[in-house]
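Dear Dr. V.,

Thank you for agreeing to look over these. As mentioned in my earlier message, I'm a first-year student in the group and I'm still getting used to reading structure tokens, so any feedback on how I've presented them would be very welcome. I ran two proteins. I've put each sequence directly above its structure. The first is here:
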Amino acid sequence: MSPRVPPKLDHEKLWNYAARLLSGRAMTIGELRKKLAGRAEAAGDVDDVLSRLKQMHVLNDRLFADSYTAARRDGAGFGKGRVLRELSNRKVPKLVAEAAVTQAYSEVDEVEHAVAFLKRKLRIADPAEYFKDPKHLQSAYRKLRYNGFSSNATVKALRQWSSVADELTDEPEE
């Protein structure tokens, strides 16, 4: 059996499809453009639908980036780098993403944010004892770096529990 190919949509059906997609979750202009382009009969219909949605203020990458950044900062506790990477994957323009992240993290102390993230993720009774094992320390370093915290803030956060945290680097273990 061959895979089912979705039918191409005329302008009105493409508009309804876009509305249905946006009712499910917020999307960026780039994400919606990609979905609509795969279903449109005429390429010009995609631009028309997108421009109508922008005029109606239903589609706005800046507002999307602002709310997404705040949610990832406060809800998941991620650092700047992770949020920037996710916004890039969601096809938010680089300048818009950088502005949203800079604004959202302007009042955040990155070291305290990293400590809170680590405490929430590891849930350890005695972190100082846990981090005596170099494998655990290196693992925590990698976890913080992957989740968007700078190397400097990561080392400062781990220094609270381990005196050898200054020796950590981004080089992979051998």
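The second protein is here, in the same arrangement:
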Amino acid sequence: MGIEYRDIKDFREKELQDLFLSVEWDSGNFPEKLKMAIKNSHRVYTAYDGDKLVGLINALSDGVMTVYFHYLLVRPEYQGQGIGKKLVDLMLEEYADFARKVVIAYDSEVEFYKKCGFEVGEDKSAMFVTYLKT
């Protein structure tokens, strides 16, 4: 059985938590908020191996001109198999007519996103204010 890609936004907290913690993302420590955040996303594509959630990408959008790809994660044991690229391709196809498609990438991720067709903004900088109350 291969990887199955789905367009869904309804998850069990535990499966989201397990996926996010598998890549050591702090969001996994807030499963209730994470479930709501994913549910409120404009679009979510997932990758499943049987009934196991192994990858996810979500989009935040104004629905007309701009889309932000916020989360993209693949379980470590599934990385390097093209799952992340396929998830990005699904989103780029979904939002093909949008004028601006934005992703904020860590330096270690820049080459991956370049392979997906993104360009580094020469005159742009990502800025963050992060606060998660435990």
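From my reading of the second output: Strands lie at 3-7, 43-49, 52-61, 66-74, 100-103. The chain has a mean pLDDT of 92. Does that match how you would interpret it?

Kind regards,
E.
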